[in-house]
Design brief:
Structural class: alpha/beta
Strand order of the largest sheet: 1-2-3-4-5-7-9-10
CATH architecture: Alpha-Beta Barrel
CATH superfamily: Glycosidases
Number of strands: 12
Order of helices and strands: EHHHEHHEHHEHHEEHHHEEHEHEEEH
Shape: globular
Strand content: 5-15%
Helix content: 25-40%
Length: about 475
């Protein structure tokens, strides 16, 4: 029998972005400041997250706020059937705790959704994507404060009601597990005197879990067609050697990620995390009714980002590697990107199998791509390196679906149009199929150019994944 080389007929192809990385207009039309607006451009994480320097590329982004029609037309030309985007919390509720929303902010997203509908592109909307209102950090202490549950649910409910009939796919929190690495923009909380940092983090995460479940409840009540997913950053962890200690260390690091999906998909805290809390004297305030809420309103699907894999060693456990925005060891069997991220297409297949075999719910790959330096020659960008990376990852997804039986329903490559890097604030780290003439120092015309990968992805989508050469 000839093997089917195409993806399922209803498979959704598209790209992914975040409001704070492409919209710009950071203080226009009533928008308030978010936690990302004070971050500068620097490969030094300490400098970036402490606002050292005077370059704020996210303030202008790529000016999607004023150019969304042009960009959506380009997405349509590529053949997108889905577009992942986020709604800036501070456009709708500038401080985050208001009763009434900012109409100008809601109207902007109405216009975006209407433009997407013109081209039959399905929006996949992240409700909170590293852009919580700075006011909620300054005046409430971020997500460690239980009041943020109510503020978030009010925000989410406002969106569900306003965009009923326009949006049916939602993600509650972007890469919720990154609270362990970049809490400043994920939970906005830190330990006060006398508090344990880890305890504060898990308390804040508990509030996000409850908020996600309550938002899922409201989404279904307002429109039963709504589908709500969780979203995690996923990098499979390989043992650095066959030593049993390395294998067990890798297994433990894998379980750290599964904690987040266990709570949101299975609806309860796994025993291994409860044991960890007990052993380390971590006390989480779980209010009466919280466990019932988590159990009653799990998500419908799992979405995740995949860029690279990690390796774990018992002897070096906990030490930070260079490059990857995770903890792990350098894998001697893999090449690396310009930014030190390992390139491992098979790791995506590993991730898909691991998640599907564990949870048996539909999956979406909502971030994946290669950050690289692109050179422009006569308005052309020959990015064969990106095409090679993407081709191998599309093939890995196809194998997971056809050979392994994984229920993968959508793929949205990260930064389908060049945008500001979340990790470094740079424009130089480009992921897009569309080049944007803007640079780290703020110069550039913002002109859009199609890269060679634009035409490659167009062909992939047109053939439903059969033609990747």
């Amino acid at each position: 029998m000839k093997q089917n080389k195409t993806f399922p007929d209803q498979f959704l192809w598209g790209g992914a972005t975040a409001a704070n990385q492409l919209e710009g207009a950071w203080n226009e039309d009533g928008k308030g400041p978010s936690v990302i607006d004070g971050l500068t451009c620097s490969r030094d994480f300490t400098e970036r997250f402490n606002g050292v320097g005077n370059k704020y590329p996210s303030h202008v982004g790529i000016d999607f706020y004023h150019r969304y029609k042009e960009d959506i037309a380009l997405f349509a030309e590529m053949g997108f059937s889905i577009f992942r985007m986020s709604i800036a919390w501070t456009r709708v509720f500038p401080k985050g705790d208001e009763t009434e929303p900012n109409e100008a902010g809601l109207a902007f997203y109405d216009a975006v959704f209407d433009e997407l509908a013109k081209y039959n592109i399905e929006p996949l909307v992240t409700i909170s994507h590293f852009e919580m209102p700075q006011y909620l950090v300054d005046h409430y202490g971020g997500w460690k404060n239980r009041q943020l549950v109510d503020f978030y649910v009010h925000f989410a409910t406002t969106l569900f009601e306003r965009y009923k009939g326009k949006v049916r796919y939602w993600l509650t929190f972007n890469e919720i597990n990154m609270a362990t690495f970049i809490p400043q923009i994920s939970i906005g909380s830190s330990a006060a005197e006398g508090e344990k940092e880890e305890e504060v983090m898990y308390q804040a995460l508990h509030h996000q879990f409850v908020a996600s479940a309550l938002a899922t409840k409201e989404a279904k009540l307002i429109d039963p067609v709504n589908q709500v997913g969780c979203m995690i950053a996923y990098a499979p962890v390989y043992p650095l050697s066959a030593k049993p200690e390395d294998v067990f260390t890798a297994q433990q690091k894998e379980e750290e990620k599964h904690f987040f999906t266990d709570v949101q998909v299975r609806g309860y805290y796994p025993d291994n995390k409860l044991a960890y809390f007990a052993e380390n004297e971590i006390h989480i305030n779980i209010e009466q009714g919280d466990e019932e809420i988590l159990a009653a309103y799990p998500v419908d699907f799992i979405s995740f980002s995949y860029y690279s894999s990690n390796a774990a060693s018992f002897e070096k456990s906990g030490k930070e590697s260079t490059g990857n925005a995770m903890l792990g060891e350098k894998n001697p069997h893999l090449e690396e990107s310009d930014w030190g991220w390992t390139i491992d297409p098979l790791g995506l297949r590993v991730a898909l199998n691991t998640l599907y075999n564990r949870y048996q719910v539909p999956l979406m790959v909502v971030e994946n791509g290669l950050g690289a330096v692109d050179e422009v020659e006569n308005d052309e960008i020959h990015d064969d390196y990106r095409i090679a990376y993407m081709k191998a990852h599309v093939e890995a997804m196809r194998d997971a679906i056809i050979k392994d039986g994984v229920d993968l329903v959508a793929y949205t490559s990260w930064g389908c149009i060049d945008l500001v890097s979340a990790g470094t604030g740079e424009m130089a780290k480009r992921y897009g199929f569309i080049y944007v003439d803007r640079h780290n120092d703020g110069s550039g015309t913002l002109k859009r150019l199609k890269k060679d990968s634009f035409y490659w992805y167009q062909k992939v989508i047109e053939s439903n994944g059969a033609d990747v050469d």
